[in-house]
Structure formats: structure tokens, C-alpha cells
Amino acid sequence: MQERSLDGVGAPSRVAAAGEGIGQDELALAARNHGLPLEAMRYEVTPAGLHYVLVHYDIPDTLTEVESDTWRLTVHGHLRLPLRLGLRELRALPAVTRRVTMECAGNGRARLSPRPVSQPWLVEAVGTADWTGVPLRTVLAEAGVAADAVEAVFTGADHGVERGVEQDYRRSLPLPVDADVLLAHTMNGSPLPPQHGYPLRLVVPGWYGMAHVKWLRDIELVDAPFRGFQQAVAYRYRQSPEDPGEPVTRIAPRALLIPPGFPDFMSRTRVVHPGPVRLRGRAWSGYGAVVRVEFSADGGRGWADAELLPRGAHPYAWQGWHADWTATPGSHTLLVRATDGSGRTQPLEQPWNRGGFGNNLVQSVPVVCC
Questions:
Q1: Phi and psi, residue 92, nearest 5°
Q2: What pLDDT, in 10s, does the model give residues 340-349?
Q3: Residue 356 to residue 112: CA distance in whole angstroms
Q4: Sign of the CA dihedral 280, 369, 347, 323?
Q5: For residues 192-230, b (16+ Cβ closer than 10 Å) or e, as one string?
Q6: pTM for this entry
């Protein structure tokens, strides 16, 4: 459908006032969307139920359509041969599997000051899965991309209102698309769960989660850059409402620590006993391999290199790391930071923008040793 404005529904984006706590609207978002329990980073591949979830509007009711074999993916626009593909046809095409770490563009938003008011992520909006499907290039090659096509626009079945605009969730990618972009129908060896886009979703390795359109139902090739809401209004790095901003694309480098020891229920403060402690975690970047992970046990005054494990056969997946720390009685603040092969590294001060996007400020884990 075409986007349209709805008077009196929704509100423009805003930044929380000084001292303003998280409101019921943000709490409602947090109850709908869940992050990865950080201890689940022990799994190389995140179980589907522990992988982070962000649903913009509603999980669509597509199950009945698929069971009655009426669901179709429509491919049209500036191409030679329009296509309408059922799920059986897509599953019959040669499939590949990609292990991909996916992170929400708003991960870390709740730690910003002043805080952009939206889904209040801390650092847990991430997960790594094995996605199986058809390379998008395969389908586009069958359709025959026209010479004047410049972008592919992807439409999901989720429908709602944001900032007064009624819309389907729509995003675009420039042409030609990367070879590893998938039309995924399988997650970790099973059909996509409803919250992860059943029956079909886009997977764009290395890009933040907003690009991985779920409940995919339509692909349109267009001859001009797409200017839809989720592309031209949302998901931009802006410093002010008037700033046109730069588009949010690839994932900035990040390292996370699996919190050591055991937690206090309410504060999540970690408790460890004196002596040797093996610290473990994961690191990733959408710009290539992570080449260095450092940790600090004194709040950033001193740093030491961790041992970084290679990515192996999975260039789009997170990398494991570990380091040894001797805990002494008292309070400590553990920090970790990653640097990738492009020279990008995590900042020690917040990279602020109005949407709270791409905030890869170093993780801080308070620990009490006793």
C-alpha cells in the first residue's frame, strides 16, 4: 500500500528530558521485544527462542495463507519477467546457509544521555543464527534486472502507524545486491518462527537488523532511490530534527562480555570469588573481521589484550574471545572493546544521535569480589 498520513495518531520522535525515566510506552515496547540473555553467548549459534526480537508493528497472521498454499512472493518492477513464487517453489531452488550475527540498530539506546525515546535496549539486542534460503541474486537473475533499475524495495506483511504515517514495513537495497543476501525460509534448521518472519525474510549479512525485512511478500525493482518512511525518515544518523542525516547501514564493531560469576536478582550486579576468573565473550563487526579485543578490570584506566578466536568458515558471524583475570576482594568495573580490520574501534564516550542508532559504546560490567 502507499504510505499515508493519519492526523492525531502517533507523535514525532523526541529525546527524553533531563532526569526523565523510562515511561509506560517504552516499557510496553520492552515487554513486546526481547533481547539475548548475555549468558546465552556461550552458544556459538543462538537458539531461536533466545535470539533478540524486534517487531515494529504486529506479527502478521500469515499462517493460514501459507497452509492453504495461497501465499506468494511477488517480484516485479523494472525487470524482464515478473514472478510470483510460492513457498514450495522457493524451497525447491538451490539453497545455501549463512551463519550471520544480527544486531538491532538501536542496541545501546537506553544507555545514551539524553535518551532518545524508543525501544529501550541496553546491549542485548543481538543474536547469531544459521539462516538457510535462496540467494536473492538467483531470483533476480531469473526475473532479469532491467538496465535502469537502481534499487530493490522489500515489503513485509507487518502494517502499522509510526509518527502519524500509516505504512507497511518497507526498506530498499542498492543494486546489484551482495552475493550473500538471502531470501531465508529456515532458521537453525527449522522453518522460521512467527516472530522471526515466517514464512520468508530477507537476511542482509553485515547490516543492522532494520535491513532484514521480515514476513517478506513483495520485491519491487525501481529506477529511482526509494523514499519511503523507514528508509528516508527513520534509520538515519541525525543530530537535530532538521538534519537530513546519513543512512544507517553496516554494524559498528562491538565486543560483549558474558557476565562472570552469579548475579543479584534485581540489580544484576555480578559476584565472583577471589582468584583466577576466565572471562569470555563475543565480538563482531559489519565491516569485516575483528582483529583485536581488549579488556579492562579497572574501569578503563588500564587495558590488556584478550585472546581472539578466528572466524573460521563463517565470515558474518561473531568471534569468540577469552582473557584471564585474577579477582581481588572489592568492587571492580570490567570493560571490553573491539577493533576491526578497517580500523574502527569502540568508543569510550557515547556516539550520540537523535535515533539512538549505532551506539557501540564499550560495555561496562560492575563486579563485586568477596
A1: -80, -15
A2: 999 999 999 9
A3: 7
A4: negative
A5: bebbbbbbbbbbbbbbbbbbbbbbbbbbbbbeeebebbb
A6: 0.95
